[in-house]
Amino acid sequence: MNPIINEITKEQLKDDRNHFKVGDGVRVHTRVREGNKERIQVFAGIVIARKGEGIHETFTVRRISFGEGVERVFPVHSPNIEKVEVDRESVTMRARMYYLRDRVGKAASKVKEKRIFEALHH
Which residue of 18, 30, 83, 87 could cross-link 25, Cys pair, CB 3.0 to 4.6 Å? Predict the structure, then answer.
């Protein structure tokens, strides 16, 4: 990336947002403005991708809502994101988990969880 852009955007980077990875179950707390009111809305699901670098880095969260798959792409360093909580840690062997899009039912949210994986291999 261009070093001039890196220098300008350095102070806008949030360093508390790099604790999750692809495959983790997360709860993303976003600020929503409706008129002159502001509230926090939570979007919970599985991180299926992280792309980009620096200020342009994004992550995609997928969940099943009323039997329909819903995906949202969030900028990692957005000021509209209050916080990202990690619900479930996973053991992922891939950089992108797009194969979850083809799964139906309970299998759509099945990911190898870290504590189960550690119990089997220790």
Answer: 87
The encoded tokens of residue 20 equal: 């999750």
For 114, list phi and psi in degrees, rounded to 5.
-65, -45
**DSSP letters of the chain?**
--HHHHHHHGGG--GGG-S--TT-EEEEEEEEEETTEEEEEEEEEEEEEEE--GGG-EEEEEEEETTEEEEEEEETT-TTEEEEEEEE-B--SSS--GGGGG--GGGGG---BHHHHHHHT-
The mean of the pLDDT values for the chain is 87
- Give the Cα separation of 95 and 86 in Å (integer): 18
pLDDT tens digits for range 30-86? 999 999 999 999 999 999 999 998 888 999 999 999 888 999 999 998 989 999 999
Residue owning tokens 């504590």: 115
